[in-house]
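Can't attach files on this board, so I'm pasting raw text. These are the components:
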Amino acid sequence: MTFMKKTMATSIAVAAASSLAVSTAQADMSDGEVRIGYLADMSGTYRDLAGPGGQTALEMAVEDFGSSVNGSPIVVFSADDRNSADVGANTVRGWIDQDNVDMVAGLVASSVSIAVTKVLEENNGLGIVSGSAASSITNEHCTPNHIHWVYDTYPLANGTAKAVVEQGGDSWFMLTADYAFGHALEADVTKVVEESGGEIVGGVRHPFPTNDFSSYILQAQGSGAKIIGLANAGADTVNAITTASQFGITQSGQQLAGLLIFLNDVHALGLDATQGLLLTTGWYWDMDEHSREWAQRYFDEVGRMPTMVQAGIYSSTMHYLKAVEAAGTDDPETVRAQMAEMPIEDFFARNGSIREDGRMIHDMYLAQVKTPDESTGEWDLYEILSTIPAEEAYRPLSESQCKLVQN
Amino acid sequence: MMMIFGVPMAVFMGQLTLGLVNGAFYALLSLGLAVIFGLLKIVNFAHGAQYMLGAFAALLGFRYLGINYWLALFLVPLVVGAFGVLLERFLLRRIAHLDHLYGLLLTFGLALIFEGTLVNFFGVSGARYATPEIFQGGLNLGFMFLPTYRAWVLVAALAMCLFTWFMIERTRLGAYLRAGTENSQLMQAFGVNVPLLITLTYGFGVALAAFAGVLAAPLYPVSPTMGSSLLIVVFAVVVIGGMGSILGAIITGLAMGIIEGLTKVYYPEAANTVIFLVMILVLMFRPVGLFGKEA
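---
Top answer:
Structure tokens for the assembled complex are below.
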């Protein structure tokens, strides 16, 4: 009910603000259109967590908004970055130079996001990063031209690693993807494990991507650690978990801790292989009535339940459009300031707000994968164990290295 | 405990065994490529996709038609191989007289089409194919726990490799085939239907890839992109072994599996590159490959 009241209040405020601005608004939209570019991996490893489904989510937001802002139509561009920083950066440069794109959405692989946000900063554009994990995107790589929406490696470590150590998993073996994201996650996890009284007894950095994990699993088995931490993502995580189950890791008394696991990964692996796995997520479709309602609409369009990234793309696009409407312009600087002023409270985010470093903080959740007996349907996969409040979940500003933060 | 280069004996033996399993797999895949290249001079870039089609056919056959693993191991190579026959008959044959590059481009394009189509329907996350009941659990080798299924993969892949080698190098049919590719006009004059032989050989190479795909289905998530990452490694194996050498592909496949396995212990960061380093060394000192014949 409070949710309804709040949204109602916001929309009244927004309507009031926009009716004041309406006479000048159209003139303030560049080209008389609001142009959004959707950049994501549409065909590779990260396709299923954002990809074409994320574009559908974005288009749903545009449609729900009424397909125009203050009379200016909303136009959506899209492109496949193929997980290449070069391709991503060049696409965005073209969008800004030739197509006058006002906002870039999607943004999945961390390496692509870091390259694209640099381009946005040089050209005074605006980007909302929804798919990437690296917490450095709003730390050492922060810019005044982007916002990081759904999650990052900090709460992943903070949520999952802490909970696992508290449950007695105090010796860890890290299986880390050998690139920026894996290193960042490994560092965040190491810190949390040691602070919680645990110990990292060993680890191995595997090339990205790796096809066969048997050798690494054997090394982890030999280490005697209670927990095998998976600091990797996508197909690598799926592969590692499959192999671990073949080698009887859990039967021999060791446990896996997946640090970045998406709904589509659990769906692909099946509950037999993943049951009991602890994970941290920014959103789950079956959290409450609002999330279920939106997820059902998405399901009707796409045929799969949405991941947290796809839901976040809807949420962030909606927030962006509201800010454009309220500000009466699509000028990046003004819109970003407007977005930061408005709190975020929708089917996706609870207690959401945008900090000066560009991090959208909101409540995160510690979840556990259900057992096949507990699950009542194909997509009934998680049980939410606890909420990590927004303020605690993310890296505190006092530890920030972001140039926008005065420390 | 006995140590080998700073690693406990048990760990070393374990990695050696796993390397051998992976090696048998590389051998099986590169064998198909070597057969196709050695006898037909087609650089089959669709090999990874055909391997993937094998795994998918097993998965879908089980899901929708209830075909079990053993039946799939027999049927899938036949079906995918027959599909290969059609490709050869209607597409590859038309460009057989042109430069190799055209065959490479054609097969590469086909691979992209197969992958793209399946990605469109199934996404990239992949699906699991259950390990057959009889292979559940593992063998305690003393120094390691080896999942029974991996042991079976080693046996099945090696048996298939030997069978292929025997067929091509030691039977009359194999002799016709080798003669036909050496001098097809002369063979035709002797009354051998060389074009048919070539079509069937391509089909057989594709069937080998599909067989490997079925073997892989319970090991790795079945996904449309599972073949593309493997293809490049397998090509490197073929180059090291000597383009077209059957025995070379088998021995090199096994050796590269072991080298890669040991790299994963001593310097894991290089595990994906070590095979290419070997390839560079081989190309520098013996450009025709370890088992290739000097032209």
